[in-house]
Write a structure and sequence with these properties.
One of its GO terms (molecular function) is sequence-specific DNA binding. Keywords: Activator, DNA-binding, Nucleus, Transcription, Transcription regulation. The protein is mostly helical. Among the domains are: 98 residues, Transcription Factor, Ets-1 (DNA polymerase, domain 1), CATH 1.10.150; 81 residues, Winged helix-like DNA-binding domain superfamily/Winged helix DNA-binding domain (Arc Repressor Mutant, subunit A), CATH 1.10.10.10. Helix content is 56%, strand content 5%. It contains 16 helices and four strands. Strands 1-2-4-3 form a four-stranded antiparallel β-sheet. 34% of the residues are buried. The structure holds a DNA duplex (13 and 13 nucleotides).
DNA sequence: GAAAAGGAAATGC
DNA sequence: GCATTTCCTTTTC
């Protein structure tokens, strides 16, 4: 059984001893990311593994923008230039990392990794809220597994493979190797395995995080927020819509604010929003016709209304945040 | 034709 | 009993 864990390569999350499947030797922890192993693969797969939100952070920090950047750096080196536009810590990390000066690399990388990890943890927290599942995959029922699969497929535009994992609990899933995933689901088994690995890593982080031990931004926040988000209270549609609106980098193509101050929002992709709501509520037959009927029930309750100037697919929270 | 509006009954917790 | 969900008809964009 493999002892490598993809998220450790991609995210440099410290290896997690949570898994009885893939026990990690302490010395393995320090091996991750050293000298940017497999950089091209790392770069090419980042967008597949992270939400748009996280990928956006990566672009913002200008660290792993593209393989072109790596080529640009190499060209600069060849041209004898000491540095290129290293205006960000992350970018510097890459510059120096490529030239082997690991002390500066470590500092820059640490900052970027913290940012990325923070975004990953936020993504998981959001998914937990929206799906009403626990962050720990080992606690999932087969129904939770199907929810998570549906969600991940939708979010990352993967083919639908739920049937390949039918009747499997979360712990069954966690015991499976990457090869098992590939065998059950050839088109995207490895990607699903990587996503699950990220969740497992986050759980391990949550279990061990404390102000003393955590050097990552937001790890302690996750402890509090995930706990409160999985309190078992059924989510209301208006809360669900607000959660989607709060993650514009993930769901901005489906639903977005037109005027956040006034609480006016537009559903850009009615079918997709309805599908997400259906996944959340275990209502496979959910569609926009039904979702919009539920929204209209809020008119009388004074939760949502149509804006003064009514537009198709545009609604307004009566009490904006 | 899709979205909006709202009545009425059914459903799940 | 509440918060939808489902199904429906009519109207509006």
């Amino acid at each position: 059984m493999s002892t490598t864990s993809r998220s450790h390569v991609y995210l440099d999350i410290p290896a997690f001893p949570h898994s009885h499947v893939a026990p990690y030797a302490a010395e393995e922890h320090s091996k991750t990311f050293q000298g940017f192993p497999n950089m091209p693969e790392y770069l090419s797969r980042f967008d597949m593994l992270l939400s748009e939100d996280t990928a956006w952070i990566m672009r913002k920090t200008d660290t792993f923008t593209s393989i072109d950047r790596e080529e640009e750096l190499l060209q600069c080196e060849e041209a004898g230039q000491d540095s290129v536009t290293d205006s960000t810590a992350g970018h510097r990390a890459l510059c120096v990392g490529l030239s082997g000066q690991t002390d500066v690399e470590d500092r820059g990388l640490e900052q970027v990794q913290s940012l990325v990890l923070h975004e990953v943890l936020k993504d998981i927290e959001t998914a937990c809220k929206l799906l009403n599942i626990t962050p720990d995959p080992t606690e999932w029922s087969s129904g939770h597994v199907q929810k998570w699969l549906l969600w991940t497929e939708h979010l990352y535009r993967l083919p639908q493979v739920g049937k390949a994992f039918q009747h499997l609990s979360g712990s069954d899933l966690c015991e499976m190797s990457e090869d098992d995933f590939r065998q059950r689901c050839s088109p995207c088994g490895d990607v699903l395995f990587a996503h699950l690995d990220i969740w497992k890593s986050a759980t391990w982080m949550k279990d061990r995080c404390s102000p003393q031990t955590s050097s990552f931004i937001g790890a302690d926040e996750l402890c509090a927020e995930v706990d409160s988000s999985c309190s078992g209270q059924p989510i209301h549609l208006w809360q669900f819509l607000r959660e989607l609106l709060l993650k514009p980098h993930n769901y901005g193509r489906s639903i977005r604010w037109l005027n956040k101050e006034k609480g006016i929002f537009k559903i850009e992709d009615s079918a997709h929003v309805a599908k997400l709501w259906g996944i959340r509520k275990n209502r496979p037959a959910m569609n926009y016709d039904k979702l919009s009927r539920s929204i209209r029930q809020y008119y009388k309750k004074g939760i949502i209304r149509k804006p003064d100037v009514s537009q198709r697919l545009v609604y307004q929270f009566v009490h904006p945040v």
